[in-house]
Every structure is written in C-alpha cells, then in structure tokens.
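Could someone model zinc ion with this protein?
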Amino acid sequence: MEAVRLSASGDPEDAVLRLDSLDSQSQTAVLRALRGRLYGDYRSDAISKAGEMIRNYDYEGAANMLAPLVELQSGADPEAERLFSACRALSDTEVFKGPVEHIFFHPLIAYPELAFDGDSMQKGFDDYFVTVPEFKEILNELYQRGYILIDIRLLYKADENGAVTKPELKIPKGKKPLVLSIDDLNFYRYMKKNGMAHGFAIDGEGKIVTFTDRPDGTRTYSDDNEIVPILERFVSEHPDFSYGGARGIIASTGYEGTLGFRTDETDAPDYLETCAEAKKIADKLKEMGWIFACHSYGHNSPSKRTVEQMKKDCDRWIEEARPILGFTDIYIYPFGELIKDSDPKFQYLQERGYRMFCGVQKTPYLRYHPDYVLQQRRNIDGIALKSSDRITDMLDVSKIIDPKRPKG
Ligand SMILES: [Zn+2]
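Reply:
Sure, complex below.
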C-alpha cells in the first residue's frame, strides 16, 4: 500500500524502490506493467528510428533496428514484421534504366451521389475524376504489378546556378519506379459542392483525416475518402510500395487558397491564424513524405495569358502559397499545357526557381535539358479508365470502373 500511496504523491521512482514491501502477487503485477511500458517505449523508438533510416534509404540499418522487435514478439507484432520484411526486400537495389511512370489524379469523388447527380457538372466529374473504390483498386493493381512510389527528386539534380543533371537512378531490385501526383488539392468550392471532401484536419492520434460539412450543419471526419489518408493506410499495410518513405506530389494553385485554407484572403482579420493552420497541415504532409508543386496561381491556360499576367500569377503563388508549402522547384502546368522553353513566360518560371516541369501525355516521357527537366504524366481519370488504350498497359481497367459512374 505504501508504494501506491507514494506513487500517488507523484514520485513513481520512489514507489518502485519500495516494491519489496509488496506481497509477491502485487510485485509481479507491477513488474509486468513496467516491462510492458518499457517494451512499448522501446518499440515506438525502434519504429521511429527505422522510419528515419528508411527516409535516408538506409534499409539495412532499418532492418537491423527492427530485427529485435520481430524476434521478441515472434509473430505477435504484424506491423513490425511487415516493415522488417519490406526493409529486407528493398535493401537490394539496382540501376533502373526503363521508363519512369508518372501518374496523376484529381481529388477523389467521396460522395458519388453528389458528383453524379445529373447536373451540368456531372460530365466533368465523370471525365476527370476517380471514385474512392476506383482509387483503392488502382493501388492494389499497381502494387501487384511491382510498382513502387519514388520521390520525383531522385530523377534530377539542380545546382544553385540552375544547371540540371540526371543522376543514376537506383531502386530496389525487381520494382518499377512510380511517381504519383494530385492536382488541385485545394478543396475548391465547386468540388466541395459536388462530392469531394471539404478539407484536411489532424485527428487525436496526429493523423491526417478529411472533414466534410453536411447540409444539417454537422461535420464528419474520415480517413477513408481522400488520396492522402487512403495511401497512408495502404503503405502501412504494404511498406514495400514506397521507396525511401515517398508518397506523392501535391500540385497546388492559390486562387481559392492553399490546402483548403483561404490564404488568398490576405486582408481577412484572421489571416495570420489561417496561415498558421494551413502550415500545420502542410508540415504534417511533408513529414509523411508528401512534397508540393506549383500548379500556377489562377489555373489559367498559359497560352491565353500575356507575359505580364503570367509573371504576376507566378509571383502571387510565391507570395501566398510558398510561405505555407515551402520552396519547390516543381511546376505542374495547368491543363497540362506546355510552354516552349524559348518563350519569356517559361524563362520567367525558370528565373523564379522552377527546374522540373510536368505536363500530360499518354506515354511516359522524361527529357533532360541543360537547365530544366520535362516529365510528362498520365492522367488516371474517367476518360483514361474508359479508353481502350490509355492505361491498359498499367492497369486492368475492367476491374476498376465504379458501377456508380453514369451509364452511357
Ligand atoms: Zn489542374
């Protein structure tokens, strides 16, 4: 009883020193609890250190860090075991010389009944978006076919003078590198009205979830209706789907704010608080392995803008979105519309630090120039899924198409 009393007075160490005064049954209970807590601390420390090593591509180090957990738990810790065997499998690398696929999505249709409600926007959602079940099946198939997510920054090196070079790409043996991006993850008004989630939040466990405000005024949270949390779960169940902790690229505009926060309303009285909230989400996403790209500020077709308008657009993104998302040298063209490198509009983008440019094309494309790289991306959306030749070499579309899509 003495031990318990002292513990309650706030000195647990003293209480432990008095263990002897307890009867043996109580002693055993206390020791068991202590051992459990010690093991728990050791486990979370080992998993977080292994994560750090994985982010530095030190898979052998990570496997060594996890080996004792697997040994001690002999089958009772599936998460540690999955991570351990992934580290073993991914530590053997080879130079990859084949084409590097880059696929992109728009935010997911979380509520098909709102996207496919027969209004004037239904066709646009049917053409350019995928639903939650479709995205999950796409992940399954990509994984089954040996793709592994990589950080696009493994594909190029840019020095401070703007020179760009191609590094040797080494990836785990037998895997195919895959870059993934999400365009327009800004939680635009038109998307919120038509079946997309309404924004990001961080839940009680520190995980990214989405929220959606329902017409009755209630707010619901979900970890199962947007790419970020769905991919997070998929990678935790299949750690060998991500190389070096890579996730994907979030291509953001600025005209309706950043990551769902109205960072464009710079005169709003709560502007600083809004920016701070947005930055919390952005920092969390970076910690998870996501990186950011500029998708222009206003999402206008580059060819329809004057050089001056284009410069303004570029600067405004840097002023409003960069403080939240951080520096990026990746530019993802709105509408996938390329600008020629002889065009002053392109040269201004280079002047402002962009080195990796991405458009849209049916086949993988990656070309190095002395001062920039161009990679083309394949759209995965309704058009691609319904086409007989767009992505059938990567995916079995017949297994993917959601029956909730409009017929015909
Ligand atoms: Zn876009």
